[in-house]
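Known limitations

Files may contain more than one protein. Parsers should not assume a single record per file. Below, a two-record file is shown to illustrate correct handling: read the sequence, read the token line, then continue until end of file.
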Amino acid sequence: MKFRLFPETVTPYRPGDENRRAGLRLDANENLWGPSPEVAAALRKLRPDDVAAYPDAGELTKNAARRFGASPGRLILSNGADEAIYALMSLFAGRGDSVLMPVPGFGIYTLAAGIHGARVCGVPLGPGFEFRRADIIKAITKKTRLVVLVTPNNPTGTEIKKTDVEAVVRRAARLGVPALLDETYAGFQNRTYSRMTRRFPNLIVVGSFSKYFALAGLRLGYVIAGPEVIAALHAILPPYSVNAAAMAAGRAALESTRHYENVRRGIVQERKKLAATLRKSGLTVFPSAANFLCVGVGPAAERVRNRLAASEIFVKAFPGAPRLVNCLRITVGRSAENRRLAEALESARPPEALLFDMDGVLVDVSVSYRRAIGRTVLHFSGGRVTPAEISRWKLRPEMNNDWDVAESLLSARGIDVPRSELVCVFQKFYFGEKGRSGFYRSERWLLPAPVLRRLAARYRLGIFTGRPAGEAKLALRRFRTERFFEIVIAREDAGNRQKPDPYGLRLALRRLGARRAVYFGDAPADMAAARAAGIPAVAVRPPGPNDVQAWSRRMKAAGASRFAENAAAAMEEFL
């Protein structure tokens, strides 16, 4: 089948497929403050005859023209701004033609041009997405068929000054090139350039009731231009493309000046507050004059977007868009909605640092330390302790290290041993003495070096362990992994504030200069310390015999946010 248009040259616009109504919709720049009560009343007053008859656009056309500073003969209504954009593109751009616009820009223009075989020639915005007047003026030539300006710009939110608009339109006029000015978000600036169409016959202004007036679901747009363009649009647009409900809502919206001005002020205030909150958390927030923010979150933007979606918070990501691949576009909502977004975004962002407990996570101590526990108990009590009993005691939240476990097992048998004496015996079994090999030699490293290399290239890595510093560093030297970890917070560093006290984790964050981290541990004390420190904790199941169900219950109760079979599996989402 042969098409006369060129659908093979465009990438279709695909709305999100999530159940957005069940969540917080911050991905489509909808006005979450909603339309005025007068709009709702007008829709309720629709009669059967209003629905059965073709709608009359005359009254709304007059009202809209008066509101936007135009005469009725210079304004035409459309089924959303998109219908107007497609129609204008069909008037001015054909196969092989060039459409000029700043980029990043609104993707519908690229789509509409491509359908007609034209192509958008993008003029890059500045590093802060600021408009560069000189660049676009230089790019306009006699071969340019249409210049497109969007202010405030979607998806960046940045605006174009009036003097810049005039300069570009004047340059285009000299070369006989029409200039389309998209004002979809101009209501949030309380500004319109539509009156400029009287001075510049080549200027065409496109607007919408979707955003400022919160009528996105009714699809109502308009074009303000000279009589020649309006006549051409009347010729090619369907005669009744705007429905009766949209017209009734549009008339009521135009009469609800006080409501929408209050909404505009509220959105501007909340936009400033949200921008300040996000900047305070270390994010890049670009200037915006619209009801949304363009926020730089880093290379994991799409992953952050997906994590937010899993929490039923929907924002817009731009995979494959070079200038926007690290950005999210976030609609400004009400205060409570913005707080929810900011909190969820902080949790969804990738960590700056990964922090590890050592025993059971990085090092398999199922033979070494556990054997030392058993032999220490045997030495002082004369009785043996089973691996299952050791496992049960290690799951207690107050057990910070294996000396504590050995001491508790002895106390349960009615035996009290001075701590210094217990530690001395334990260490002899662990390190060995008099030519006898110590149990530490049975330890093995659990996280492969290639994985560590990849992690170290992306994150700052550190260790927070209950081991004494000498033992922790000995293990790192033995397994040749010292170079991967910037810091080691050991038993001596935490002093009398051992896990589950969060002191050691907070110290690790300070020394790394990081604010966001994830902690990987295998014991309830690890999880509790992370929870108290306000960072996510991943429970890594230690090697050796374990009651997996009991371990999982204890770890979840202590604050584990996720579970992993082993350290390598825990790293999958971070690579």
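...continuing to the second record:
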Amino acid sequence: MVSQKFTGNTRSPDATLADPADAAWITRVTASPIDSATATHSGLLKGLSFAVKDNIDVAGLPTTAGCPAFAYTPQSHAHVVQRLLSAGASLQGKTNLDQFACGLNGTRSPYGPVPNALNPDFVSGGSSAGSAYVVATGQVDFALGTDTAGSGRVPAGLNNIVGLKPTRGLISASGVVPAAQNVDCVSIFARTVALAAQVLQACLGYDETDPCSRHVPMLSQALPLHFRFGVPNTLEFFGDTLAEAAFSRSIEQLKALGGQAVTIDYAPLSQAAAMLYESALVSERYAAIQAFFDANEGAVIEPVRSIVAKGRQYSAADYVRADLEVQRLRQVADSMWQEIDVLLVPTTPTHYTIAQMQADPVQLNRNLGQYTNFVNLFDYAALSVPSLMREDGLPFGITFIGRAGSDWQLADLGQRYHHASGLRSGATTQALPEPQTISALTVPSSVRVAVVGAHLSGMPLNSQLTERGARLVGPAQTAPDYRFFALPNSQPPKPGLLRVAPGQGARIALEIWDMPVAHYGSFVALIPTPLGIGTLLLDDGTQVQGFVCEAQALEAATDITHLGGWRAYIASLAKPVL
């Protein structure tokens, strides 16, 4: 057991900052006496550094929740902090937040707005703003946030990092200042999914001192390689065409990993999301800090003050009716799981500058929660992962959502997707490390990939398979539903394979290779547009991952279907012209 009590430097909210980035921290650790048992501890997180959002207790350091008048100094650690210290991690300090965890933008703090890690003119996202910033900039290995309406996901999406919002009750919230206790959960920020999952393993466990802690049956089987993902039937990007285009590209990238897009009705999710602040459910915000708020309302900044005060106007009957309506909407929404394995949404629909947010703090904040507010209300798990960089240099993130207990499944899929993106790590210049096994999950060790052109054995790009440990299984053919083309201006020469209506195509020769799953993502990342990985139907009726091509790219291509395969085409080029 770790017994240290920390001391640190806590800055005053009106302190002049030499660098706006300093707004990410409220208290920095200056001393942490560690007993000899701890010093030799070889726990799961030994050697890793972390920070915690300043609504989470650390013994000896003030807990401010972003409100100096509320501050108190706890004598014991929050349950989750104790578990991290016992696992060998080193605490570096406490981070800035939207006051009382009320906000999704990172500007609602008397300690100053936290800037975006990639462009300081833009918001960091909140309420776990500082935690996301110090992870994105590489100041710590991981950080804790909290998530009620999206505070563990929005900052991740806006700062090019991973945000893991676990199933509620997996991590104890004992020693955490609540925002809305029935739907709160502690969240995890990291630069890789594997580390976020490792931290979750160290944190999770039933805690009888937390009334919301629970035993959750965890799904231990990975999603199938051919999985179905839901996409909302209505999408709102508030005029941000770059975000809209980025999400369309994200859908295609997920298809390339074996996913099949399924349109789902977003109405019940959207209706529940609106209720979090626009119904009697907001009274939980008031109940969380009622005694302090009633005595010190003037110490709470706007618009947090108005939001919390709104909770006073509702009766117990109003709350019961609102809660029942959420349960009804959840029943309607849950029907989507009959058709999909995972839900895909943008983490945020757009980016805002700090100036824009401060000029319209309520509406723009609400916009940032377009795809987040319903998740905890419906008892889902969620994982935000980086997807791509927009043309304006801002990051775009996506969120995978699953039912309670699907955390390890989401981590496995999220890691595959993130490592196939080719992105850098957070706001650093570092490349992503090699993916790691999600140890709590049973996953296939390899994936079968069909190649039809330059990756065939003996062809110029075959080394991209062999250097990843892929093994040739043998030759095969597609079903007779494909047409085959030689792409123009492609070096080395490459073909394009297109599935067509039955009777309009032919069987195309290919090879099946067996590739270690751990290297599959890096292989997919090498595939240039207009090519991608999709699902191919073979002539024996089975399906396999394989190379496909965008239809519009074939307009100027040469149809070589009649040759039956790439080797025959290459051989035809060598024949003398008579």
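Parsers that stop after the first record will miss the second one. For reference, the second record is described as follows. The mean pLDDT is 92.
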